[in-house]
Write a structure and sequence with these properties.
This protein is of the alpha+beta class. About 15% of the residues lie in helices and about 45% in strands. The chain has 2 helices and 14 strands; from the N terminus they run βαβββββββββββββα. A hairpin with a 6-residue loop joins β4 and β5.
């Protein structure tokens, strides 16, 4: 889930910029420091959008810059347990598919895609069912539910998000469209 949050943090202004400490400079320094970082409380910081207040600078002994505390707005992405998300398949491997959801990827394990057996086709980067001829490949849009999450603040790319698409209303968008058409056809026949 994307959220706009108000945060406070301290940023170091290098000596060469001390003559021109403006909200724009502080915003750029905050963006360089924080964007792409993971925070357990707010999630992944996608963008620092606006600086509201820059405090008085503090000098720290044996440090070249001056440290300023700033209050600012940031756009964050914080995936919530049981949240339904739309994403795109970014990689297919023998044990499942990685789904891009916001700035992170979630794993859709092969056991959580379908009740059908899905065979891995490494040459074509796809998972395929022999029974229904359904396939899942890079670029496919999917809808899934977040069922596990383990956030690694030090290495955000090592964070793990587990997904499922086995529930009603979840799965590859094309499969969902087919199911809707079948239900509409069945309703029309009754």
């Amino acid at each position: 889930m994307y959220k706009r949050v108000r945060l406070r943090d301290t940023v170091e202004v290098p000596p060469e910029h001390l003559a021109d400490v403006t909200p724009e400079l502080v915003k750029k320094l905050l963006q360089d420091k924080l964007e792409g970082r993971m925070d357990e409380d707010v999630g992944s910081i996608v963008s620092v959008t606006e600086v509201h207040d820059v405090g008085e600078g503090a000098v720290v002994p044996n440090e070249p810059g001056v440290y300023y505390e700033a209050e600012f707005d940031a756009l964050t992405f914080d995936p919530q347990m049981q949240e339904v998300v739309d994403g795109e398949i970014v990689e297919v491997v023998n044990f499942g598919a990685f789904v891009g959801i916001g700035p992170v990827d979630g794993l859709l394990h092969v056991s959580q895609i379908s009740d059908e057996y899905l065979a891995y086709d490494g040459e074509n980067q796809m998972l395929a069912s022999r029974d229904s001829n359904r396939t899942l490949t890079v670029g496919d849009a999917v809808r899934a539910r977040i069922v596990t999450k383990s956030i690694d603040e030090r290495n955000p790319r090592d964070s793990k998000i587990g997904l499922t698409a086995k529930q009603v209303g979840l799965g590859k968008h094309g499969w969902l469209d087919e199911e809707r058409k079948e239900r509409a056809k069945a309703a029309g026949e009754n």
